[in-house]
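Consider the tokenized backbone below.
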């Protein structure tokens, strides 16, 4: 018995040894690539990469949201909206009653920069026109979507526009998705923003909370305060004078449910500051900037146009209106809390999103109206160039060598103290974020074509006088938007010439007024159409001008018309070009003949 046990043990040991040797030999024969898979040894720690964490989270998100795609339209609400009648309903221009007080109107205009009195005459739950692309009516979205907290910062907002913002959100959002709306009072001083607001909210708006900040911190930190209080999966930021349109929410949430690192912007419609008419701005463009960090827009890409209702990538957001998963927002450290009051925050967050592994899209089927004010009503907080300081922070942390292009144009930024940047730079390092060059090459790849970091020289510049009456010069009067250019007596002083008589025919092929960024613009196709001043867009169209050196014509537009003048009335206009017309000849003070020779080669 003992002997048989002994031989059994021997036999088993032999079998074990054979298995072991076979395994070792087999293992060594495998190509080294597979070795990694089978070895439990972690010779090299895997490089921390946001993508890995992201994929894990993505799995989480996929399980949580998703499902099949469904039609989210609230047909009952839409039917109710359609049946409404009254002042400003369906976004048609509203009117004041005959007996309105002019004094009241003016005082509300001056504190708001829009017609506050008229706003009070329009129902808080008015209907808005469904101006989405018609295919949006057919689009389906995931049946399980994340929940939402809406954050609305406000400083001295007019009560009816603020309430209309909240009510439009409540009425046009699926109620089970809308967790809460935070109205964050950035230390308003108007009484109307206090008790009347609290009373209305307490009585009618159970989902709304008002957060009062003890000191004015500006919209960036006010948004942060709202975001900190929020409990929803997705944060949606809105301005305090907006109106959410039909089915606005699902198109904002669906791309986030698919990938929690996608930030989504709605299309921003225009609510007219004077009539409260609701209209579309256009069918969407991609957000961009120039090298003074003015917000600009680039055309949609041809492949985006093929699918007009599909979200398309955009390099930067316009600002106040966007949706982002709370998880991603806080992974990015939220906004840089060192940014003061306002300015630069849309660039900071956009650069951060793209460079640190996220993505930004505009969703054509989500539309929100916004009142673009006539003028900014708030007094300057008196703390120096806070916008410059914000820009400096953003440039220093995110823009690498490209920051220099901004400092070249605004040398005084170099001397502004940006404050402590340690934390912001640490976030960039920790998240292993990509360079600004990567952003410029891969995301804003066509930006430099329209906004080159180093501008080519002007084709011509200086005063522009009429060849028949050389004592008369073109004058941009007060250089304000919508104003006509006219003829006035030329300023012949050698130094400090009248600035409204100085222009540049720039490489954009537009004619710019010195100082403010307005361009000669002709939108009117009728004969003898006036030339007005309009914000320069650099995209030709109504602002395309060419100087014909031989004929001395200033030729406008793709359907060419020439600048002409009525010398007795001192007016200028565009009309059919004619070699017989003496008054169509213009003398520009400095002409860069060499650049003009390259006209056809330059630009697009
Ligand atoms: N805002 C704020 N604190 C400020 C300035 C603005 O909370 O110091 C709010 C304002 O009420 C609005 C948003 O921030 O909801 C954006 O400001 P505004 O509408 O004036 O900017 P615009 O749309 O005119 O660029
Ligand atoms: Mn606004």
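A designed sequence for it:
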């Amino acid at each position: 018995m003992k002997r048989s046990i002994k031989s059994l043990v021997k036999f088993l040991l032999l079998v074990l040894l054979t298995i072991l040797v076979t395994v070792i030999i087999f293992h060594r024969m495998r190509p080294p690539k597979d070795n990694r898979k089978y070895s439990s040894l972690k010779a090299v720690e895997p490089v921390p990469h946001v993508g890995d964490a992201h994929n894990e989270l993505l799995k989480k998100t996929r399980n949580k949201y998703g499902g099949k795609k469904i039609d989210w339209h609230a047909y009952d609400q839409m039917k109710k909206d359609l049946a409404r009648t009254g002042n400003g309903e369906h976004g048609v221009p509203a009117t004041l009653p005959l007996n309105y007080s002019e004094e009241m109107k003016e005082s509300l205009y001056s504190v708001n920069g829009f017609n506050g009195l008229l706003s009070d005459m329009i129902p808080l739950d008015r209907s808005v026109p469904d101006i989405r692309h018609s295919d949006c009516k057919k689009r389906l979205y995931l049946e399980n979507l994340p929940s939402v907290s809406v954050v609305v910062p406000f400083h001295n907002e007019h009560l009816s526009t603020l309430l209309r913002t909240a009510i439009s959100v409540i009425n046009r959002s699926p109620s089970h998705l809308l967790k809460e709306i935070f109205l964050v009072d950035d230390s308003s001083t108007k009484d109307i923003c206090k008790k009347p607001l609290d009373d209305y909210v307490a009585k009618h708006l159970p989902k709304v909370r008002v957060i009062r900040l003890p000191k004015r911190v500006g919209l960036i930190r006010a948004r942060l305060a709202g975001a900190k209080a929020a409990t929803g999966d997705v944060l949606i930021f809105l301005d305090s004078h907006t109106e959410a349109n039909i089915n606005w929410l699902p198109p904002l949430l669906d791309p986030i449910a698919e990938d929690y690192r996608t930030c989504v912007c709605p299309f921003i419609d225009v609510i007219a500051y004077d009539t409260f008419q609701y209209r579309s701005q256009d069918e969407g463009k991609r957000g961009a900037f120039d090298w003074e960090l003015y917000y600009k827009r680039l055309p949609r890409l041809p492949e985006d146009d093929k699918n007009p209702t599909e979200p398309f990538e955009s390099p930067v957001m316009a600002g106040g209106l966007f949706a982002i998963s709370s998880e991603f927002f806080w992974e990015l450290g939220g906004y840089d809390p060192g940014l003061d009051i306002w300015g630069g925050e849309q660039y900071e967050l956009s650069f951060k999103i793209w460079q640190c592994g996220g993505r930004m899209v505009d969703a054509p089927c989500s539309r929100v109206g916004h009142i673009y004010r006539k003028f900014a009503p708030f007094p300057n907080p008196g703390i120096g160039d806070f916008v410059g300081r914000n820009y400096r922070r953003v440039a220093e942390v995110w823009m690498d060598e490209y920051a220099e292009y901004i400092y070249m144009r605004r040398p005084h930024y170099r001397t502004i103290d940006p404050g402590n940047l340690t934390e912001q730079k640490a976030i960039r390092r920790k998240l292993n974020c990509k360079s600004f060059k990567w952003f410029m090459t891969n995301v804003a790849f066509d930006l430099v074509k329209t906004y080159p970091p180093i501008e080519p020289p002007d084709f011509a510049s200086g005063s522009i006088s009429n060849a028949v009456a050389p004592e008369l010069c073109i004058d941009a009067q007060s250089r304000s938007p919508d104003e006509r250019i006219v003829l006035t007596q030329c300023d012949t002083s050698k130094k400090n010439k009248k600035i409204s008589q100085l222009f540049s025919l720039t490489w954009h092929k537009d004619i710019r007024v010195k100082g403010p960024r307005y361009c000669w613009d002709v939108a009117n196709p009728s004969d003898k159409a006036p030339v007005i001043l309009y914000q320069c867009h650099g995209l030709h169209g109504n602002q395309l001008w060419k100087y014909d050196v031989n004929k001395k014509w200033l030729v406008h537009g793709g359907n060419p018309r020439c600048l002409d003048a009525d010398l007795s009335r001192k007016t200028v206009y565009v009309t059919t070009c004619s070699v017989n017309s003496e008054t169509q000849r213009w003398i520009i003070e400095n002409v860069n003949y060499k650049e003009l020779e390259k006209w056809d080669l330059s630009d697009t």
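The pocket of manganese (II) ion (ligand 2) is lined by residues 239, 241, 320, 370 (CB under 6 Å).
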